[in-house]
Amino acid sequence: MAYDEILYEQRGDVALITLNRPDKLNAWTRQMHAELTDAVQVANADRAVGAIVFTGAGRGFCAGADIGRQFQTRIESSKQSAASGAERAKSDEPEAGTNWVNLVRGSKPMVAAINGAAIGLGLTLTLPMDQLIAASDAKLSARFVKMGLVPELASSHFLVQRCGWGAASDLALSGRIVSGAEAAAIGLVDRAVPAAEVLDVALTLAGEYAANPDPQLRMIKDLLTRNGAGVDLDAVQQGELSALQRAYATPEHHEAVAAFMDKRAPRFR
Questions:
Q1: What pTM did the predictor assign?
Q2: S-S: 252 plus which of 16, 62, 103, 213, CB 3.0-4.6 Å?
Q3: Which domain holds residue 89?
Q4: Residues 64 and 171 in one domain
């Protein structure tokens, strides 16, 4: 696929995906979603890639869905469906195509380098990722209520998982904007750093993940996804044991043991 709204490059063993509509603060479109999905699948299929970093071109990360391009069409479609008694128009959000949350959780490690505004969908598309690094002065908001909407992309789950009940409720019910520094303080993002350092920090962190074996990284992500809110600890342990048995049989585990015995660094990729 040729990319018009994102950029894709490789930095060592890390794939860097850049949302590239800087004149629109990288506002999300269905085309951008298709390109992002394709780029993630390309990175997942490339044995030379161990982790993925996302950032935005220009001064924003992603200002949410492109209201001018899509919202009016949806409203008119909804009105026509209601007038005819037909089924409501299907959403233009990412879950209408490839399931973004499942793609993120099933992929190689992902780090978001939130270099500027991350509003609405621009925030929630990052919440399932493994680490969120934000510029201290970035503006973040789960702003759906201000548009007469509700959170999506499982963000009503991930906000609670990241921030806890109180902070998640405040962010979703108020729609207020928080700085990257405040977002780090309440757990919405994992770290806030000066804007000039965001991408370098994210790439360094992703490089640390990429140094580890791909199958185990993805198995660990699967375990965290399944067990992060699990209450049946016997089932949690059984899932871990099953994954551990699969890991024992992998060439990556055998290489790690051989490297340990030979007193050398393992070669996973």
A1: 0.89
A2: 213
A3: 6-210
A4: yes
- The count of structural domains within the chain is 2
Check whether residue 224 and residue 141 sit in a common domain: no
Measure the CA–CA gap between 250 and 5, rounded to whole angstroms. Answer: 38
One-letter amino acid of 141:
S
Domain annotation covers residue 1: no
Q: Are strands 60-62 and 14-19 parallel, antiparallel or unpaired?
A: unpaired
Query: What type of residue sits at position 206?
Result: A
Of 75, 74, 69, 1, nearest to 29 by C-alpha is: 69
User: In which residue are the tokens 């551990």 written?
Assistant: 244
Residue with tokens 């063993």: 13
Which residues of the chain fall short of a pLDDT of 50?
Answer: 88-92, 95-96
Is 33 in contact with 71 (CB distance < 8 Å)?
no
Residues 166 and 245 in one domain: no
43 falls within a domain: yes
> Tokens 């990241």, residue?
162
| Dihedral angle sign, alpha carbons of residues 121, 127, 129, 134 | positive
pLDDT tens for each residue of 197-241: 999 999 999 999 999 999 999 999 999 999 998 889 999 999 999
pLDDT, one tens digit per residue, over 35-64 is: 999 999 999 999 999 999 999 999 999 999
Residues 193 and 249 in one domain: no
Evaluate whether 177 touches 143 at the Cβ level (below 8 Å). Answer: yes
- Which two tokens mark 192? 């806030």
Residue 268 lies in a domain: no
User: Does 186 lie in the same domain as 70?
Assistant: yes
Tell me how far apart the alpha carbons of residues 26 and 18 are, in angstroms, rounded to a whole number: 9
Residue 267 domain flag? no
Beta carbons of 247 and 253 less than 8 angstroms apart: yes
CB 216 within 8 A of CB 109: no
